[in-house]
Amino acid sequence: MPPHRATSAAPAPAGALVSVLLPLPLAGAYDYRVPEGLAPVPGSFVTVPLGSREVTGVVWGDGEGDVAAAKLKDVIAVREAPPLPEATRTFVAWVADYTLSPPGSVLRMAMSVPAALDPPKPVVVYGKGPVPADLRLTPARARVLAFLDDGPPLGAVDLAHEAGVGTSVVKGLAAAGALVAHPRAPPPPVPPPDPARPGPTLSKAQALAADDLCAKARAGGFSVTLLDGVTGAGKTEVYFEAVAAALAAGRQALVLLPEIALTPQLLGRFEARFGAPPAAWHSDLGQATRRATWRAVAEGTVRVVVGARSALFLPYPELGLIVVDEEHESAFKQEEGVIYHARDMAIVRARQGDIPAVLVSATPALETVNNVARERFGEVHLPARHGVAQPPDVAAIDLRREAPPRGGFLAPPLRAAMAETLEARAQTLLFLNRRGYAPLTLCRTCGHRLACPHCTAWLVEHRLRGRLMCHHCGYMAPLPRVCPECGAEGSLVACGPGVERVAEEVLALVPDVRLGVMTSDTVHGPEAAGALLRQVADGEIDVLIGTQMIAKGHHFPDLTLVGVVDADLGLAGGDLRATERTYQLLHQVAGRAGRAERPGRVLLQTYQPEHRVMQALVSGDRAAFLEAEAQARREGAWPPFGRLAALIVSGPDVRAVEDVAAALGRSAPAGAGVAVLGPAPAPLALLRGRHRRRLLLKTDRRVAPQPLLRAWLARVQVPAAVRVAVDVDPYSFV
After folding, report:
1. For residue 5, what pLDDT band results from cuts at 50, 70 and 90?
2. What percent of the chain has a predicted confidence (pLDDT) above 90?
3. Are strands 30-33 and 45-50 parallel, antiparallel or unpaired?
4. Counting beta carbons within 10 angstroms of the beta carbon of residue 569, is it exposed (0 to 12), middle (13 to 18) or buried (19 or more)?
5. ∠75-81-33 over CA atoms, to 5°?
6. What is the rounded end-to-end Cα distance, in angstroms, of the chain?
7. What is the pLDDT of residues 481-501, one digit of tens each?
8. What is the pLDDT of residue 56?
9. Is 320 exposed, middle or buried (0-12, 13-18, 19+ CB in 10 A)?
10. What angle do the packed helices 167-176 and 139-150 form, to 10 degrees?
11. Which of 705, 701, 704 is CA-nearest to residue 646?
């Protein structure tokens, strides 16, 4: 049956047919018969036979009845877990339909922790029982019994700690009958937040924005509101008020973040506001935490989740608010498996749950700005920084006129500004969105460039690791002593800067500087990120160097100088959003400067000071930049004024890939408001050992691409060794 078919919520009686969707890339749901003793409802997690194995899926509704009775199999068991909520099931079906993904593949994201379908094991606590007359009462045993005279029952570890004894003493007393074991349900992974706990005093603009969002959170009903505020305006405190309103109304809340590196700082701010941390959800969590959190969300005992894009698919039974922080971030786009944009899907989830969504950004995406202009979204605005902080002064350093010294990458004005900042005992942030030591290694003798054998990409030198690395597939190799092409010894040289090379230059300039480097190579997981950010906040680091991990959301009161080493880096290439992304990224990193009493300044090293991105950043005229960007897109009918969908054909055999791509090109849809570009080699024509070709479907806003894509794909037979991935609303064009 179609996975979106509406059915009754009543339990299915014995002998009835139910449709079960399995978390597998299958064409649809399968019919099963309900045996005596089971009564699943839509959303029930059930174990069913599939071939020679048993699989757990979800009852999607009534069976179709188009399978012969002799071939029907019975449901084996109903799992002891809350049913998957109707809003989640509808959302799964919608995402599958929109992205052209098998519905089971989307369901798998909602069933990401299979172990959570089993009830958690009870926690055993010990209370005082009748003390046997013949019990040998040692001093240690006496302390345990004395504690329990007045204290509550506790687990063995906690009881031993309180009494100052080993756990063997507690277990010995239990074995002797002096302690009675009581099974208890395990506590939730986080305590409940207190929505009535007073928050900080808000400014007038903050209070007006908070009133708008709180009214929507209390009333319910679908709405989308852009919380647009300059960096440092206190947007987080405003949407915390909306979270408090949702909690007070008895609903759950979800806050989506683009990067898990932002999680520690936000968790701390949340705990300070609500007296308890929210539940975190991201890929770095251990299995035990994921199991407990998934289950507690499904049972409604976790009231607030802060997480990455996958948190959108958790089974919330009472979701009342979705906040998408840094909504403009491209990290919200999942590029593999089920390809979707979490910001857009969050809006869909809010619509289907009939709840408000809040999009938060200092540099909102052009799509969002356009939706506000069309009055599809509401808007609240914070025009100034909170408190006494003022926007930083932004200036461009023209590298054509003020070039760095030979062998260096920091121009004289930036070097001087850094020295002044260190003298004033303030902090500097140097930003370069390029990991490693150097992006390219070449031979001075023959010009050979060291490339990845599995990807169309140069190998990046990581000098701290002593390795060359491909940032696309993870391939690593030691730096060779001789050129692999011409055999020349000592001829390989590093070209261009990465953050490691900038750090080397800073240490050469100021040997005793306290330096921190923040990239995905040096900071592994949110705990490590939190530790480094605390060092910066506590003034233990003078100069912080990093990639985009440091660009967003962080608050460093003593950071007064931001230097962008290569402001032009994101402008190259054929990405239609390259200009917008570069503006957003540089605006965000500039916003780290001068967020407290001390004024801030930003220096942009560029070869293109006349570029509209640099001009907008220096002038602070965001509106003019967005209007120019919108006009360029409007003239070409590019998103948000047109629609795109990409087909990415890939496989290990280049000839087979080209044959499929050519067949797709020959059978491409045509008509008014429809155009197909390609097939053409992808910019990364070889990725992880797979050859790649791309086709791009471009349509008018009034033409839905999904029906065209379905008919198009049905016309071409694709061999098993070739994969055709569909990316509706692509953000990446590599």
Report:
1. very low
2. 81
3. unpaired
4. middle
5. 15
6. 37
7. 999 999 999 899 999 999 999
8. 97
9. buried
10. 80
11. 705
Q: Would you state the structure tokens that stand for residue 414, as one six-digit string? A: 């930036």
What are 528's two structure tokens?
């490590």
* Contact between residue 47 and residue 55 where contact means Cβ atoms under 8 Å apart: yes
708 in Cβ contact with 679 (< 8 Å):
no
The residue among 719, 708, 712 whose CA lies nearest residue 658 is 719
113 beta partners: none
- Cα distances from 182 to residues 127, 153, 476, in angstroms, run 7, 8, 54
Which pTM was predicted? 0.91
Whether cis (ω within 30° of 0) applies to the bond prior to 679 is: yes
Place of tokens 């000098």: 463
Strands (E), 355-478: 356-361, 378-382, 393-398, 427-431, 440-443, 460-462, 467-469, 476-478
Task: Assess contact for 458 and 450: CB atoms under 8 A.
Answer: yes
Locus of tokens 């709180």: 214
The CA–CA distances, whole Å, from 629 to 93, 437, 581, 583, 643 equal 35, 34, 11, 11, 16
**Ranges of H-type helices in 555-621:** 578-590, 612-619
Predicted confidence at residue 730, as pLDDT, reads 94
Residue 66, classified by CB atoms within 10 Å of its CB into exposed (0-12), middle (13-18) or buried (19+), is exposed
3-state secondary structure of 185: coil
Peptide bond into 730 cis (omega under 30): no
Residue 423, classed as helix, strand or coil, is: helix
Closest CA to 544 of 576, 577, 592, 581: 592
How many CB atoms neighbour CB 356 within 10 A?
A: 26
HSE value, Cβ hemisphere, 13 Å, CA-based, for 11 = 10
Residue located via tokens 């967003």: 552
Which tokens belong to 647?
Answer: 């087909």
E strand or H helix that includes residue 690:
strand 690-699
Q: How far is CA 632 from CA 421, 608, 629, in A?
A: 40, 19, 5
How many Å apart are CA 107 and CA 291, to the nearest integer? 17
Nearest CA among 559, 301, 331 for reference residue 427: 559
Q: Which of 553, 542, 518 is nearest to 264 (CA)?
A: 553
Q: Is the pLDDT of residue 388 over 80?
A: no
What local confidence, expressed as pLDDT, does residue 6 receive?
A: 38
* Tokens describing residue 555: 């608050």
Measured CA to CA, the distance from residue 481 to residue 700 in angstroms comes to 55
Helix (H) or strand (E) holding 56: strand 53-62
Q: Which tens digits make up the pLDDT trace of 575-626? A: 889 999 999 999 999 988 887 778 899 999 999 999 999 999 999 999 999 9
Of 441, 445, 415, nearest to 430 by C-alpha is: 415
pLDDT value of residue 261: 73
pLDDT (tens digit per residue) in 233-243: 899 999 999 99
Contacts of 657 by beta carbon, 8 Å cutoff, 6+ apart: 649, 650, 651, 691, 692, 693, 722
Residue 376 CA: distances (Å) to CA of 134, 277, 373, 731: 78, 33, 8, 22
Cβ(294)–Cβ(116) below 8 Å: yes
Is 4 a residue whose pLDDT tops 70? no
Judge whether residue 214 has pLDDT over 70.
Answer: yes
Q: Rounded to an integer, what distance in angstroms lies between the CA atom of residue 541 and that of residue 534? A: 10
User: Given its phi and psi angles, is residue 387 left (phi above 0), alpha (psi -120 to 50 degrees) or beta?
Assistant: left
As a whole number, the mean pLDDT across the chain is: 93
